[in-house]
Every structure is written in structure tokens, then in C-alpha cells.
Write a structure and sequence with these properties.
Largest sheet: 6 strands, parallel
Order of helices and strands: HHEEHEEEHEHEHHEHEHEHEHE
Helix content: 40-55%
Strand content: 15-25%
Number of helices: 11
Radius of gyration: 23 Å
Number of strands: 12
Length: about 290
Amino acid sequence: MNRTTTQDTFFKALRDSLPAAALIEQQVRTALAEDLGGGDRTAALLPADRKSRVELITRQNAVVCGRAWFDEVFRQLDPGARIEWRAADGERVEPGQILCTLTGATRALLSGERTAMNYLQTLSGTASRARLYADAVAGLPVRLLDTRKTLPGLRVQQKYAVRCGGCYNHRMGLFDAILIKENHILAAGSIAAALTAAFAVAAGLPVEIEVENLDELEEALAAGATHLLLDNFELDRLRRAVDLVGRRARLEASGGVTLDRVRVIAETGVDDVSVGDLTKDVASIDLSMRFMDA
């Protein structure tokens, strides 16, 4: 694969944005404990000294994601296992393509197969979905953002997969940004009161507020809002919001975003579009591990 300078920068950014190795180790340890429990009773039928060689193959078009978790599974089960990758995270692959080869203790390869595949299939599915969306808005000055609609226990992993697919991360959780929504506004008493309280405690965190119509948008601007979430705005109202705001605040469209509508939403001129579909309805990629002679 010939990579342009832009592609090289993309792949480097992915490598630099991998979660900490200690976190990946902890996540994999938990996943293995869930599957292995007191030990793999079936793999124990095989001689402990047997070695095998395995090829990992994709059965469909995909964007690869999850190598670090895949590798960590076998590192924990067999520190001597050798893995040779032929595709990088963020790289597009085609049906029948060999993604990597593994050589190691047969018991370890069999015991780790399902956990390693679960990670790679799910995260590659997320990255592949994100790439479809990123391709749909190619050429437009817009960011497609994920949401907190992730699979339980896979927040960090899926957020990384979204980046592998060419989209962007919104807040990681409730701790790294303030997003004032309808119920927060009702509890505070007004948009202005909610923003005043948020600015007082923000301590450098981003502050964004949800508005449901143009009157609320103007009220939020008057109260000092710099990031506005436009909730379920129709296309004509999105365009009017963009004209009204100019560049006084960053605008994010949200609600009802699908693959067939994302480009027309982006063409209204909003800065960001948040897409729950990137992570919540993911279909795993069809992969196969094929055992060969050692």
C-alpha cells in the first residue's frame, strides 16, 4: 500500500493516541478472566508443549482496529508468542486478506482465540462504520463526533476505533466536559442560569448547551454560550442557525443523523455533527483464525 504524507500523519496520530499500555493490559485481563474462569478445559486436552501457526483472515471489506488488545491477549497467555501483522489499525482491508500470522503454544492460541477475535471484530466493526460516515462527508469542513452511546465496558476502545475510522471523539464521559441538556436547564431554572452555574465551575472544561429552537439559541448566545448543540433541527433551521450565529459560537447538529442524511446535514454549514450510530449499532467484522502447521 502506497501511503501519502497525509496517510502517514493519520497512522502516526493513531499510534500516538492509543490508550495507555497499563489500561489495555487491565482490560484484557478482565476479558480473559470472564472467558477462562478456572481454566480452558478443552485446550487442556492437548499436549502442553505443542506449537501451532495461525493465520488471521478477513472475510469482508473492513477498516482494521484493535491490534493492541489482540496482541495483549496472547502476550498474557503465552509471552513467547510471535505475531506478525500485515495491516495497521486504520487501514482498509479486503476479503481474503491475511491480517497477521501467529506462532506460539497451541493451548494459548486456542484459549485466547475468542477474546482476541471479539476485540478485533467489534473494534474493526466500529472503525468500519466510522469510515463509511467519514467518506460520506469527504471534502466538507465538518467534524463527525461520536457520543457516549458505546457498549458497556468498551468506551475507551470504541472511542479509539472511531478515530481509526476517520471520525472524532466528543467527550469521553461525564467528567471531561460540561454538556447542559434540557433537564439541566429545567433544574437550573433557565438557560442563562444554567450557563452561569457552568461557567462558575468549569475550571477550564469545555461548556456546551443544548437548544431546541432559534429563540433558545439567541438566549444562549446572549448568556455567553460558545458551543451550541442544535437538537433535532430540521435542515432549514440548521441553515438559519448558521446564518444567525456567524462565527460567534461553534455549532453541533444532533439527533436523527443517519448515513444517508449526514452529508446534507453537514452541508448546512454546522461545525460538527454528532452521530450515535458510530458506536451503538455496530456489526462485527467477519474474521477467521485458521490453524496451520507449526
